[in-house]
Write a structure and sequence with these properties.
six-stranded mixed β-sheet; 2 domains; Neuro_actylchol_rec; single chain; four-stranded antiparallel β-sheet; 421 residues
């Protein structure tokens, strides 16, 4: 414990204000303004939230413009207003009086005092000894983002405000009010809630109390949806329709690869918007990764389909491809080894039979016409299966499978995401 000078003269408020030479008043600004230095000095903190400048989730830095009001009781700067022309309030330079050394405990850079422009600030004193310091500050604090539901993400950031240079129990900070009226809106973030509460560095130890300003933020997703995610959805849909592109056009494979590269570029843009964290993997990253894998599958299937399309008809078609083609087209096919001209005619010999007489000639001609119609109908029903038709059927099958995979994967991811919320 240290000894402070004798301050029997309590009426020094107007003297500090009127006399330029204040050294003779025996006021030491390095000591707490208490008669008993063993007592605890309480500093009340009020915050006016002016503007949220930025929240960089990649660097985990929150920038805010705030106004602070600090209030405490100075037991030495007080006077009887009736003896001094009813002066009830005086403003004294901050450099000439004691002020609480308030700091931000979780800064993004170095620890710094809240009031940086000290030579421009004034402390207001009332005749009862109540001191008030009002100042503005731009603070950059650390804030761990929660990006699991990006771009519909919400975050809770904290500004830990306390004193510096005094041991526990000498100076204590306590919250007073937080004002949110008429603050400047931010185009990217919505300030949902502001709370000014007291917390403790050491649980259960009242002397470790500090003021905590919690800011709940939610993103405005419209910009990212219109300029990033809706184009990605269009690319995913366009990639599926590659199976309807004719193989004869010669651009089927290049089209699929172009869409794949475009999706990879969009994924890079999305990753630039997110911090490299592994604790909370964004749902959108999982979805994009699955769709990228689907696009690789689509490219592979497209290349195989083109390979089948350009095969020679002299090569036999395997049974599993024949069954797949019949399943997709709902038609039966004959082998590509058989020709239409090889279809037998049942009545060829009967028509050339020497035992036929004129009495039955009309009946024979009618039967022959009917038989030829039946054979023609049978040939139309039993199409010849070619590799081009197999390729066409595989494209339809791949389109159905890929669109079902896309819907199923997205549905499962969203279901598990909403279960966790």
């Amino acid at each position: 414990m240290f000894l402070c000078p004798d301050r029997s003269e309590l009426v020094i408020g107007p003297k500090l204000f009127l006399y330029p030479d204040r050294s003779e008043l025996n006021y030491t600004k390095s000591n707490r303004p208490l008669r008993n230095q063993n007592d605890q000095l309480l500093v009340r903190v009020s915050v006016y939230f002016h503007m949220l400048k930025e929240f960089n989730i990649v660097e985990s830095v929150l920038g805010t413009h705030l106004f602070f009001t600090l209030q405490w009781t100075d037991e030495y700067i007080r006077w009887d207003s009736e003896e001094y022309d009813n002066i009830t309030v005086v403003n004294l330079p901050l450099l000439d009086v004691w002020v609480p050394p308030m700091v931000l405990m979780n800064p993004a850079g170095s620890f710094g005092f809240l009031s940086k422009e000290k030579d421009m600030l004034l402390v207001q004193y009332s005749s009862k000894g109540l001191a008030s310091l009002v100042f503005a500050a731009y603070l950059e604090s650390t804030c761990k983002p929660f990006i699991k539901y990006f771009p519909f993400d919400s975050h809770t950031c904290h500004l830990m405000i306390s004193h510096l240079g005094y041991s526990m129990g000498e100076v204590t900070s306590a919250p007073s009010h937080v004002y949110v009226n008429n603050f400047v809106d931010n185009g990217q973030w919505i300030v949902d809630e502001l709370n000014l509460t007291e917390k403790w560095l050491i649980p259960g130890v009242n002397e470790s109390q500090y003021v905590d300003l919690s800011i709940q933020l939610s993103r405005r997703p419209e910009f990212l949806l219109l300029n990033l995610f809706i184009p990605i959805a269009f690319l995913i849909c366009m990639n599926l329709f590659v199976f309807f592109l004719p193989a004869e056009c010669g651009e089927k494979a290049s089209y699929s690869i172009t869409v794949l590269l475009s999706l990879a570029i969009f994924m890079t843009i999305v990753m630039d918007q997110l911090p490299p964290l592994s604790s909370d993997v964004p749902v959108v990253s999982i979805i994009l990764c699955m769709h990228l894998a689907n696009n690789v599958i689509v490219c592979t299937c497209t290349i195989l389909s083109l390979n089948y399309h350009h095969r020679s008809d002299t090569r036999d078609i395997p049974c599993h491809l024949r069954l797949l083609t019949m399943l997709v087209t709902w038609r039966t096919y004959k082998s590509n080894c058989n020709k239409i001209g090889d279809v037998p005619k049942r009545t060829a010999k009967e028509n050339m039979s020497p035992g036929a007489d004129e009495k039955n000639s009309n009946i024979t001609e009618t039967d022959d016409i009917t038989h030829r119609a039946d054979v023609s109908e049978d040939i139309d029903r039993r199409h010849i299966l070619t590799w081009q038709k197999v390729s066409h059927a595989i494209d339809r099958w791949n389109f159905f499978i890929c669109i079902m995979m896309t819907i199923l994967e997205s549905g499962l991811v969203f279901y598990h995401s909403f279960q966790d919320m």
